[in-house]
C-alpha cells in the first residue's frame, strides 16, 4: 500500500503541532488535510500557526491551506488525528465517525464510552481488537469499513500506566496507588497558553479535572475487553484504588510523577521490579511499527533521574523513564516516572496507534 492520507484536526495547537512534526516524512502517512477553527481556516498553515516546537516547522506542511473541520474537507483521509479543543471536539468527531472516517482523538469527550477503546499504544494496544472486530464483522456482511473513534488517554495517565502494565502482568493486581504529578506547561495548550507570570518562580497545585481523569482512566486502560468483544470492562473501585494530586510546574515538555503502589499479593523485590520493567516489550515494538520505541520503559539507576529536560526524549519521546525505584514504608514500592506529554502522552500515541491499525489492515 502507498502512503495513507492523514488529516489533522486542531493542527495549530500544542498537540496539533506535534502531529505535524511526527507525520512529516512519515514512511506510512502523508499530511493531506489540516483543520482548525475559522480563525485559521483559509490561511496557509505557516501563517495560521504560532509555531512553538524546538525543531523548524516542516516546510511542506507550512504551505498547506488550513481547512474548516468539516467532513467534506476530510472525506478522502484514510485516518484523521484530532488535537481539537475538547469544547469543540464532541460534535466534530461524532460527525466524522458517522461519515465513515477513522478518528484517533486526543480529546476527552469519548474516552468514557464503553465501546470506544482508550489506548496508550505501548500499554493496552490489545483493546484495539474492539475496532478490528467491528471492521471484520462489517467486511463479512459485505459492508464498507465503518467509521470509528479511538481515544488516546490523558497525558499524565499515559505515563502512569506505562510501568504499571508489566508489573500487573508479572506480579498480579495493584490494589492501592498514589501519584503526585508535576506537569509541563505545554499540557495546558497554546490557546491562549499558560501565562508565564503565573508559573515563573512558582508552582500551581491545581489542574482542572486532571485528578479525576487519572483516577478513572487508569481503571479503563488496565481493564479487559468484555466477553462480547465489543467493549471494555473497567477495573472496579474494589480492585484498584487510585489517588492523584496534580501540579503545574515551570517545565516546557515532560510530565513527572511520584508514584507509590501496593500489590495485592505482596511486595516483589526491587530487583525483580526493575528486571520486569527492563524486559517489557510492547506489541508495537514486536510488530516493528516505525515509531515504536526500542524500549517502552527505561529504568534509570542514577539517584537524581529522571529529569524532564534530560530524559523526555528517550526513544524519540515514545519511551517512558522510571527511576528512584525503592521500597515505600507505607505502601510497597515507590518510583518517579517521566513521560513526554505531547508525544507518548498525546500526538505520538496517536501516530503509534495508527501504525498498529495499519499493521492490522484496519486503516
Ligand atoms: N497538550 C497536551 O499535552 C495534551 C492535550 N490533550 C488534549 O488534546 C486536545 C488539544 O489540546 P492542545 O493542543 O493542548 O490545545 P490547544 O489549545 O493548543 O489547541 C486547540 C486546537 O483546537 C482548535 N480549535 C479551537 N476552537 C475550535 C473550533 N471552534 N473549531 C475547530 N477547531 C478549533 C484550535 O485552532 P485555532 O488555532 O484556529 O484556534 C487549535 O488548533 C485537547 O482536547 C486536550 O485536552 C490531551 C493530552 C495531552
Ligand atoms: N490536562 C493535561 C493535558 C490535557 O489536555 O489532558 P486531557 O486531554 O485529559 O484534558 C495537562 O494539563 O497537562
From TrEMBL:
It catalyses: L-aspartate 4-semialdehyde + phosphate + NADP(+) = 4-phospho-L-aspartate + NADPH + H(+). Pathway: Amino-acid biosynthesis; L-methionine biosynthesis via de novo pathway; L-homoserine from L-aspartate: step 2/3; Amino-acid biosynthesis; L-threonine biosynthesis; L-threonine from L-aspartate: step 2/5. Residues 5-131 form the Semialdehyde dehydrogenase NAD-binding domain. One of its GO terms (molecular function) is protein dimerization activity. Belongs to the aspartate-semialdehyde dehydrogenase family. Catalyzes the NADPH-dependent formation of L-aspartate 4-semialdehyde (L-ASA) by the reductive dephosphorylation of 4-phospho-L-aspartate. Mediates the second step in the biosynthesis of amino acids that derive from aspartate (the aspartate family of amino acids), including methioinine and threonine, the latter of which is a precursor to isoleucine. This is Aspartate-semialdehyde dehydrogenase.
